[in-house]
Amino acid sequence: MKLRTGSPWMPANDYAGSLTGFTVNLIVRQVEASVVFQQEVLGSSVIYSDPDFAVLRGYGAEWMLHADHTYLEHPLHSLLTGDEGRGTGVELRLHGCDPDAAQAAAERSGFRVLSPAADKAYGLREAHILDPDGYDWVPDIPITQD
Fold first, then answer.
1. Quick check: 113 and 128 in contact, CB under 8 A?
2. CA–CA separation, 111 vs 115, rounded Å?
3. Host H or E run for residue 16
4. Radius of gyration of the chain (CA)
5. Which residues contact residue 13 at a Cβ distance below 8 angstroms, ignoring those fewer than 6 apart?
6. Per-residue DSSP letter, 5
7. Are 92 and 37 in contact (CB under 8 A)?
8. DSSP letter assigned to residue 83
9. What's the start-to-end Cα distance of the chain, in Å?
């Protein structure tokens, strides 16, 4: 079931054919709410967004959001009905995204900070922030030696 009215920004097969390497599709309850998180907390750019689908870009990567209702015929649909966080055990890392700024934005916007920004022994400063669907986003930057 599609909620979008009008034409998409490009035909699906054209976009799919343009993809290379590794991509991530996140299945979300509401694309609009997830886009707000992506922009305000992570500083991502929205390439395209409608009620069914969004393409985001930032930090040298591109990823997609698909609304639950677009997965009605997909094998994953039966796993999407609970309230628990999605993607448990997966960290979605954005290298180069300032964890302190992302944490501050998350707190201002009411998103859950799972772990505040901190320096780690492996040389990164990182935070763990949950998006509206419970995905664990980890903005990180290298720790600079003063």
1. yes
2. 12
3. helix 12-18
4. 16
5. none
6. -
7. no
8. S
9. 54
Locus of tokens 């609970």: 82
Point out which residues pair with 140 in neighbouring strands. 95, 126
pTM of the predicted model as reported, rounded to 2 decimal places: 0.82
In one-letter notation, the amino acid at residue 61 is A
- Nearest residue to 91 via CA among 123, 130, 144, 36: 130
Residue pair 3/26 in contact (Cβ under 8 Å)? The answer is no
**What's the CA angle centered on 3, arms 44 and 18, to 5 degrees?**
50
Tell me the C-alpha distance between 7 and 48, whole Å.
12
Mean pLDDT across the stretch 17-31?
83
Give pLDDT tens digits for 72-123. 887 777 777 766 667 877 889 999 999 999 999 999 999 999 999 999 988 9
Q: Give the residue among 44, 55, 52, 27 at the shortest CA–CA distance from 96.
A: 44
Evaluate whether 47 touches 62 at the Cβ level (below 8 Å).
yes
What the block records as the tokens of 112 is: 């859950």
Q: For the chain, which domains are there?
A: 12-142 (3.10.180.10)
Q: 56: which 2 tokens?
A: 């985001």
